[in-house]
Design brief:
The protein has one domain (2-186): 3-Layer(aba) Sandwich (Rossmann fold). Helix content is 37%, strand content 22%. It has helices spanning 19-30, 71-80, 114-123, 144-148, 154-177, 179-186, and strands at 2-4, 37-39, 42-51, 54-63, 89-94, 102-105, 129-134. A 7-stranded mixed beta sheet has the order 2-3-4-1-5-7-6, with helices on both faces. A hairpin with a 2-residue loop joins strand 3 (42-51) and strand 4 (54-63).
């Protein structure tokens, strides 16, 4: 199960906070998977992803609960589809990671990311993989909540366009090689 975090609605689609949705949409497009069915407070799609001869069935999930309540969608879907934590990866923005950086983690705390906190609370475990995409800290005294809800600037898009592709590649590596190999390959 591959989950991209973000906020529902066109007004949020290009926001920094929605980079999880953006990466999930890119991944879905690579494999012709339509994320167009509503189930348990989320848009979902299923299909097959193939890389290096490995064909893997995937469930793609975009929670529609708003970021801070993502667990309300993720946990029931994980239970319904019998997805164990080691078969779950969540793609999200990270304020504390330098802008334009990518980091995979096998497990861990929420790191202050409220969507991840909600998923941990609802699943009852921190033991699921993450693709963290650094958006950096807001400039000056800007409120972080305002910062994450801004769209990427054109200059940032020059960095984040290729970074979205790299994040989708990290998911492919997780699927075909496992989290340890993916971390070694993409956390450099």
């Amino acid at each position: 199960m591959i989950v991209g975090l973000g906020n529902p609605g066109p007004q949020y689609s290009r926001n920094r906070h929605n980079i999880g949705f953006q990466v999930l949409e890119l991944f879905a497009a690579r494999y012709g998977i339509a994320v167009d069915r509503m189930q348990t407070k989320a848009m979902i799609g299923s299909g097959f992803a193939a890389k290096a001869g490995i064909r893997q069935k995937v469930l793609l999930v975009k929670p529609l609960t708003y970021m801070n309540a993502s667990g309300e969608a993720v946990a029931p879907l994980a239970r319904y589809y019998r997805v164990s934590p080691e078969d779950l990866i969540v793609v999200h923005d990270d304020l504390d990671l330098a802008s334009g950086k990518l980091r995979l983690r096998a497990e861990g705390s929420s790191g202050g990311q409220n969507g991840i906190r909600s998923i941990i609370d609802r699943l009852g475990t921190q033991e699921f993989a993450r693709v963290k995409i650094g958006i950096g800290r807001p400039p000056g005294r800007m409120d972080p909540a305002d910062y994450v809800l801004q769209n990427f600037t054109p200059d940032e898009e020059a960095v984040f366009g290729p970074l979205r592709e790299r994040a989708a590649g990290a998911i492919e590596s997780w699927l075909s090689d496992g989290i340890e190999v993916a971390m070694n390959r993409f956390n450099g």
